[in-house]
Fold this protein.
Amino acid sequence: MIKSLTATLNKNRPIVDIELKDSTVLWRYLDTAKFLDLTHNRDLFFSRGDKFEDAYEGAFTRKIKEIIDHNYRENGIDFTADEFAKRIREKVFVNCWHRNTNDSMAMWHIYGQSSAAMAITTTVGMLRDSMIEANLPFRWAIKKVRYVNHWRNPEIDIRPYSNIFSYKLKAYEFEKEVRVIVDRSQEFDIDIAENGMKIGVSLEKLLRSIVISPTAPSWFFELISATTEKYGVLTPVRRSKLTFGPK
């Protein structure tokens, strides 16, 4: 049985996934350019829902599409589930994190992309508080991603519809992803950003640590330490524990 298709989020009371604890540690792997953008501008980038490479991002299952199309026909609405999904993708914005106590060599390889990379860490509680302080005028939630086989027509919760972005294919299960999902699908007069949107945050509230890639040279560690000091970021900078051999 499919869960109810309608729900309303209070903009001032963001939803945090019940399976996430405040103390849950989150990682976001960045290249140098993205890190400098974060420290200089003090904002987080949220990708637009239709800009992900995975074609299943934001896709309804066959069963849900059938129900939506049926409801449109019953109410004489000249619209389709595919058109609705397109609108959702264009007006939902996503910021992605990796859920893990420690850093992951696989994640360094995939998302660090080079030795000139770093990761920022936070916790679910710190992320929530920094987003609350941003005082956003639209709905948002912090969700643990569930991994499903889309073609098997799994039961998924789309209350609200933007929650579709808290589901991914099982092929991505290794990512252990947590997402901040910003839902602007109810706004009809917004200018749709080409690739995404930025939200200003307090780095003092957000950042727990800054971790340098295990393959980065010593000068890069010193450079990032100097950069954070220059921009007044007091968060400790350390090298990945994967840098060091056994003692």
